[in-house]
Automatic annotation (TrEMBL):
Record protein name field: Tyrosine--tRNA ligase
GO MF entry, a single one: ATP binding
Gene source species: Blepharisma stoltei
Enzyme class: ligase
Coiled-coil region(s): none
UniProt lineage: Eukaryota, Sar, Alveolata, Ciliophora, Postciliodesmatophora
Annotated GO CC locations: cytosol; mitochondrion
Keywords, sorted A to Z: Aminoacyl-tRNA synthetase, ATP-binding, Ligase, Nucleotide-binding, Protein biosynthesis
Pfam families: tRNA-synt_1b
Entry EC number(s): 6.1.1.1
GO biological process, one term: tyrosyl-tRNA aminoacylation
Family: Belongs to the class-I aminoacyl-tRNA synthetase family.
Catalytic activity of the protein: tRNA(Tyr) + L-tyrosine + ATP = L-tyrosyl-tRNA(Tyr) + AMP + diphosphate + H(+)
Length: 421
């Protein structure tokens, strides 16, 4: 089947059930539970699979789990998820709905740029909360629960591997996902569901429900888990997800994450997360490894798809500027992006004429005067990249960047920003 061939060529195929023969005017879907207010970089492989599905003539559907997020998917978890409040789910859903459309358009643009697509099929975004508006518990048990014997369900790995007992609420999740698939098949001619490899049982529960209720052969396709060479989940930085919302994760942080990836496994990531041709990937890999061209290419494609190509060029310029320590070439927007997570302090113009060490201690850049004095004596205090060499220095001895910013390095890694208000 063409879809499987396409996904396999991009290292995006893990397992698949039998694919139906006639898929004319059929749809394919993938679900996104709004358990956070933003999707993360790891979701991009699923988005790419949706875009690639359109090459096979399938109409893509993104399903927001406004209902299932209230339950919580137990797959791959050893403990129960904390339940989210309705208001939080509604907020997350609104955020992610906008994000899904934006990211899909960005990825389609990259696929067209790389001539992988000739035309685009519009993405349909639905919310499964609407599927359950008129669904009573009695109706759900009769319409869905009736078709599933209990023994096969409780013998599944996600039940056996739980450190604590599984709740009935979580246990119902796979049946709700099955109903989602059934609803989409019945109302949108959706014949294929895409999902991560941990979704196999949930997906096949859906194909079984469709077979029993509609006498149709729907299909499930899973994608391999996206891991780095050291076995870590791709898109995690210091244990935190790299979000697609730039207010939560700056594009600069995504660039640095990609730039620091090991060479091992980089081709696989380029195949799964971008639409760059394998020929171009191989050509890029032939360049000297120390230039890190593959890592830069990965960063470019991700940032261009999610935030736009102009944003990538700003990130690249800022990164090059920092590497050369040409801090004075930075602009306000670049400082805000690069040092998004840095602690920021405001001072008046008059305060810039105070003794620098005393000022830094008073506004709590360090714990106290002793600590900042120790950093000064250890030659570990820099302002805008310049080493502080005089104990009687003032902040005004250094030229502010873009008229108001001072980048303060206290030690090798800690950075603070002082802003003249």
């Amino acid at each position: 089947m063409e879809l499987l061939k396409i996904l396999r060529s991009r290292s995006l195929l893990k397992d698949a059930t039998a694919i139906p023969e006639n898929l004319i005017n059929s749809s394919v879907y993938c679900g996104f539970d709004p358990t956070a207010e933003s999707l993360h970089v790891g979701h991009l492989s699923t988005f790419n699979a949706l875009v690639l599905s359109s090459i096979a003539g399938l109409k893509p559907i993104a399903l927001l789990g406004g209902a299932t997020a209230l339950i919580g998917d137990p797959s791959g978890r050893t403990q129960a998820r904390a339940q989210l409040e309705n208001a939080q789910i509604e907020h997350n859903t609104k955020c992610i709905e906008k994000q899904i459309s934006k990211v899909y358009e960005g990825l389609v643009s990259r696929a067209l740029h790389h001539k992988l697509l000739n035309t685009k099929l519009p993405l349909t975004v639905l919310n499964n909360a609407n599927f359950y508006q008129d669904m009573s518990l009695i109706k759900f048990l009769r319409e869905v629960g009736y078709y599933f014997p209990i023994n096969p369900l409780i013998n599944r790995d996600f039940v056996k591997n739980r450190e604590d007992s599984i709740t009935y609420t979580e246990f119902s999740y796979s049946l709700m996902q099955a109903y989602d698939f059934y609803y989409l098949c019945n109302n949108h001619n959706c014949m294929i569901q895409l999902g991560g490899s941990d979704q196999w049982y949930n997906i096949t529960t859906g194909t079984e429900l469709i077979r029993k209720k509609l006498d149709k052969s729907a299909a499930g396709v899973t994608l391999p888990l996206l891991l780095t060479a050291d076995g870590q989940k791709f898109g995690k930085s210091a244990g935190n997800a790299l979000f697609l919302d730039e207010n939560l994760t700056s594009p600069y942080l995504i660039y640095q994450y990609c730039f620091n990836l090991p060479d091992v496994g980089i081709k696989d990531l380029l195949l799964r997360l971008t639409f760059v041709s394998e020929e171009e990937i191989n050509e890029t890999m032939s360049k000297p490894l120390e230039q890190r061209e593959c890592q830069k290419l990965l960063a470019k494609e991700i940032i261009a798809a999610v935030h736009g190509e102009d944003k990538f060029h700003k990130v690249k310029k800022a990164s090059d500027t920092l590497y050369r320590r040409n801090y004075r070439d930075l602009k306000s927007e670049e400082i805000d992006m690069v040092f998004q997570d840095a602690i920021k302090f405001e001072v008046t113009s008059e305060e810039t004429n105070e003794n620098l060490l005393e000022l830094l201690a008073r506004i709590k850049v360090t714990e106290n005067l002793w600590a900042i004095t120790r950093l000064f004596k250890d030659k570990a205090l820099r302002i805008n990249g310049d080493l502080v060499t005089e104990e009687k220095s003032k902040l005004s001895d250094f030229s502010p960047i873009d008229g108001k910013y001072f980048i303060v390095h206290t030690g090798r890694r800690k950075v603070s920003i002082i802003i003249i208000k």
